Amino acid sequence: MKTLDPRIKLFSVIIITSLALYYRRPLWMLILSVSAFFMTVMLGADFAAFFKRIRRFFGLLLMISLLQIIFVRTGEPLLTVNGFALIYGDGLSRGVSVSLRFFVIICSAAVMAGENSRRVVASLIKLKMPYTFVFMIMITLRFVPVFAESFSDAITSVQLRGIELKKVKLGKRIRLYSHLLLPVVADSVIKSQELSIAMEARGFGAMKKRTAYINVRLALCDYIVLALLITLGAGAFAAYGIYA
Amino acid sequence: MTQPAIKLLNARFTYPKNTFTVYCDMLCLNTGRITLVTGKNGSGKTTVLKLCCKILRPQIGSLYIFGEDAKKWPLGRIGQSIGYLFQEPSHQLFTATVWDEMTFIGGIRGDDSEKTKEKALELLDRFNLLDFKERSIYRLSRGEKQRLALAAILMQDIRYLILDEPTTGLDAKNRNILYSQIESLSDKGIGIAVISHSGELISRYGENKIVVENGRVVL
């Protein structure tokens, strides 16, 4: 399963995320989340890195769910204090669904993040996407950690100049972070310019037609998984329409 | 008169995915003297000195800074007494202009603005950067960036300074400016550790030498 063609992985991700957007009921979302989790593991996403990635999102997930639970005020009141309804049925249902939806999206991202970027590029080109566009997507993804690293370097440098960030008042801390943002963005722009020069110097775009070092081809198991995905996906859409 | 500034004891640091491990049984860096840290490329020189000021945190081991256990110290507290000049100076310049770089931290810390300006002007003059005061840091050469990074570090009253490969990419004139600054700081009692494998630096400061080999400190 780990060596499946990236196009099949992409297709599975599209089906799972579409279902996540389509489903509204928490129980259905829970079933989908468990399926997405097993899919992530089976498609070879790094298990340890996967959990690390999820951990970072826990705070955000919790906050979004809480906002839904508190502010959606329709359905049956579930928790009432002194005659004031705090939690409604629809709020709780939406809160749980939103969290699970994020979980499914993170699982899907983990599947594609675990794939070799050059194989992904080759697959997208086979899907007739323009090469420059595909490359632009890959470079953008590559620049996310670069940007994060530049910001982290700036924060380290500030601390090395004797600033104990925890002791800085909130207002000044916001001023500090906003002040750091512009040079970090400028640094990333400079790095991207250097990268484009380096790419052109190595002949990027010199020829209209490119040959590929990595070639992807659908194998028998890819076709079997594709058929399975289409059947299960269609079944999952239909089942929700009928039973939910 | 020298005294121990940084003491790293029984420390071990492994990079993620066990790619490289650095061990240090005992490393003592003193004030008032220049210590050269040398070794082959990839031997772990930079890692050892990053452990000495907690840019990297040792997985095990103890770190003492001016006699105090620094295990729980935040990086910001260490930065108040120890300065670190990165091998690539642009990594530690984080504002838009030369003047901002010199005065920004003072503003955050709430220092007296007149004194900050005075000190910034004096340091810019000392490092031949006064003419570039209003210039964007992106329009400085590597040597100028390095002088600026060092000047900005010296805006704090540090007691120890770590320089990572400070002569990389500098011409003879800029190297001489750097040597005179290093020696003048050392004369003022500031301890200095210089990471380098350059022959010129070894012949100049090789008297107190620490060698790092395959991730181990060989004293």
Helix content of chain A: over 70%
Largest sheet of chain B: 6 strands, mixed
CATH topology of the domain at 1-79 and 191-219 in chain B: Rossmann fold
CATH architecture of the domain at 1-79 and 191-219 in chain B: 3-Layer(aba) Sandwich
Strand % of chain A is under 5%
Greatest contact between two chains? A-B, 26 and 28 residues
Total of domains of chain A: 2
Radius of gyration of chain B over alpha carbons? 17 Å
Distance separating the two termini of chain A = 31 Å
CATH homology group of the domain at 1-79 and 191-219 in chain B: P-loop containing nucleotide triphosphate hydrolases
- The helix count of chain A comes to 8
Residue-averaged pLDDT of chain B: 90
Helix content of chain B: 25-40%
Number of helices of chain B: 7
Strand order of the largest sheet of chain A: 1-2
Query: What is Rg of chain A?
Result: 23 Å
Morphology of chain B? globular
Give the oligomeric state of the chains in this entry, treating copies of one chain as homo and distinct chains as hetero: heterodimer
Distance, first to last CA of chain B: 22 Å
Topology record:
The complex is a heterodimer of chains A (244) and B (219).
Chain A: H1 6-22, H2 26-42, H3 47-71, E1 77-81, E2 84-88, H4 89-113, H5 117-126, H6 131-160, H7 170-201, H8 220-243
Helix pairs in contact in A: 1-4, 1-8, 2-4, 3-4, 5-6, 6-7
Chain B: E1 4-14, E2 21-30, E3 34-38, H1 45-52, E4 60-65, E5 68-69, H2 75-79, E6 82-85, H3 98-109, H4 113-126, H5 142-153, E7 160-164, H6 172-187, E8 191-195, H7 199-205, E9 209-213, E10 216-218
What do you see in this structure?
The complex is a heterodimer of chains A (244) and B (219). Chain A folds into 2 domains: 1-115 and 218-244, no CATH class; 118-213, no CATH class. Helices cover 74% and strands 4% of the residues of chain A. Chain A is built from 8 helices and 2 strands. Chain A has a two-stranded antiparallel sheet. In chain A, helix 2 (26-42) packs parallel to helix 4. In chain B, the strands form 2 sheets. In chain B, strands 6-7-8-3-9-10 form a 6-stranded mixed beta sheet, with helices on both faces. In chain B, strands 2-1-4-5 form a 4-stranded antiparallel beta sheet, with helices on one face. Chain B has a domain at 1-79 and 191-219: 3-Layer(aba) Sandwich (Rossmann fold), CATH 3.40.50.300. Helices cover 34% and strands 26% of the residues of chain B. Chain B starts with a strand and ends with a strand. Chain B has 7 helices and 10 strands. The chains are: A mainly alpha (244), B alpha/beta (219). Chain A binds chain B through residues 153-154, 156-168, 172, 175-176, 179-180, 182-184, 186-187, 190, and chain B through 53, 55, 74-80, 83-84, 90-96, 104-105, 108-109, 137-138, 152-153, 155-156.
